[in-house]
Design goal:
- The protein is an alpha+beta fold.
- It folds into two domains: about 90 residues, PH-domain like, CATH 2.30.29; about 60 residues.
- The chain contains four helices and eight strands; from the N terminus they run βαααββββββαβ.
- The strands form two sheets. It has a four-stranded antiparallel beta sheet. A four-stranded mixed beta sheet has the order 7-6-5-8, with helices on both faces.
């Protein structure tokens, strides 16, 4: 390994892709909050209807309960189904070379192997964040674009990759592997 450059030819598999998708959607972007709030509101209305003791209040409570629990479950189920379909479309059943990331003094350079497009370069100051999670580094180059760097695929040890990211990104690095 050179102290000035780390190269990661990223071979992505379905498990890593799915884990990242769940992290990005539910942890980072917190898209579980609205369905949870919706469920709580409808559950509260169901409880009020049930406690009112009026005729048909049990039926109204049951409908509110079914909708309050059903729609969030459909939301999560649809999300997970879409992630599975996307992994199939990308043919990630077996690890597949999708892009190569080079980390150097200037920034992050990404060469996409799935699409014919120019290599992208993002300066360290413009990179948004890096997360060390189980089995992978998530390197956010913009609010909507991240590079997944699975452990063991770089031309350097994983701890050296993390130290390199910390050296260049500082406070933007978040270690999800720390022991509490």
């Amino acid at each position: 390994m050179s102290n000035t450059q780390i190269t990661v030819p990223v071979r992505l598999d379905a498990k890593t892709f799915k884990r990242f998708s769940r992290f990005d959607t539910f942890v980072l972007r917190r898209r579980w909050v609205r369905p949870a709030a919706f469920a709580l509101i409808l559950l509260a209305f169901a409880l009020v209807a049930l406690l009112s003791g009026k005729a048909q209040s049990g039926l109204i409570a049951a409908v509110l309960l079914a909708v309050g629990l059903g729609l969030p479950l459909v939301y999560v189920g649809t999300f997970l189904s879409q992630v599975n379909l996307q992994a199939q479309r990308l043919k990630l059943d077996t690890p597949r070379l999708v892009y190569t990331v080079t980390l150097d003094f200037d920034g992050v350079h990404v060469v996409n192997h799935l699409k014919k497009e120019d290599a992208q370069t993002v300066k360290w100051a413009d990179a948004r964040a890096a997360y060390r999670k189980r089995g992978c580094f998530y390197l956010y180059l913009s609010p909507v674009r991240a590079c997944l760097l699975p452990f063991g695929q770089a031309d350097a040890p994983d701890d050296a990759v993390w130290a390199y990211l910390q050296r260049h990104m500082g406070e933007k690095c978040h270690d999800g592997m720390k022991k509490p």
